[in-house]
User: Which sequence fits this backbone?
């Protein structure tokens, strides 16, 4: 089974596949590069979200990792990130446990007293589930845009190998013949 198609520039940089000039030109002509001339925040974002969008957009444009097609994906990442922070703050404000009054009954099922029982706060439990979902959305969005260290490592194009020079190179002419 073939692997995912890699950009021609990456193949050339790796130096593992030898392509003729004609093959390189053919591959480059078939590669699709989406324009990045209209990378603007969607109207449904709030003012603060638009600021965040523009900050990230600027950095992604600098390394050519965003196009017009990615606008909504970046907006969804920003929304998920904002909601994650909101839920995390709500969890911090909510007590982990709550006290409930529990009836103490005898063997005939008659109430003989009341005791206080401490249980995990059901609200915290629900908030943690939401937080986990939002974290996964944020993580996926960050991976898609190279916003994590591991995703950036996958995006790095290796530098071409430098030619080794030896002490006799100065005696060779430009074509490599003596």
Assistant:
């Amino acid at each position: 089974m073939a692997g995912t198609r890699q950009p021609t520039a990456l193949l050339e940089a790796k130096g593992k596949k030898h392509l003729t000039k004609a093959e390189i030109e053919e591959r480059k002509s078939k590669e699709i590069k989406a324009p990045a001339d209209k990378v603007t925040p969607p109207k449904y974002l709030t003012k603060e979200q638009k600021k965040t969008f523009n900050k990230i957009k600027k950095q992604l444009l600098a390394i050519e990792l965003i196009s017009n097609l990615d606008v909504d994906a970046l907006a969804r990442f920003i929304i998920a990130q904002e909601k994650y922070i909101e839920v995390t703050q709500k969890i911090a404000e909510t007590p982990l446990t709550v006290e409930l009054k529990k009836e103490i009954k005898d063997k005939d099922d008659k109430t003989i007293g009341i005791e206080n029982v401490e249980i995990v706060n059901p609200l915290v439990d629900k908030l943690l589930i939401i937080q986990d979902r939002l974290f996964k959305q944020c993580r996926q969005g960050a991976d898609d845009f190279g916003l994590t260290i591991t995703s950036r490592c996958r995006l790095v194009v290796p530098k071409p190998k430098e030619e080794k020079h030896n002490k006799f190179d100065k005696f060779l002419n430009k074509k490599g013949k003596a």
Observations:
- The CA atoms of residues 8 and 23 lie 10 Å apart.
- The chain has two domains: 1-32, 35-159.
- The first strand starts at residue 97 and ends at 105.
- The two ends are 46 Å apart (CA to CA).
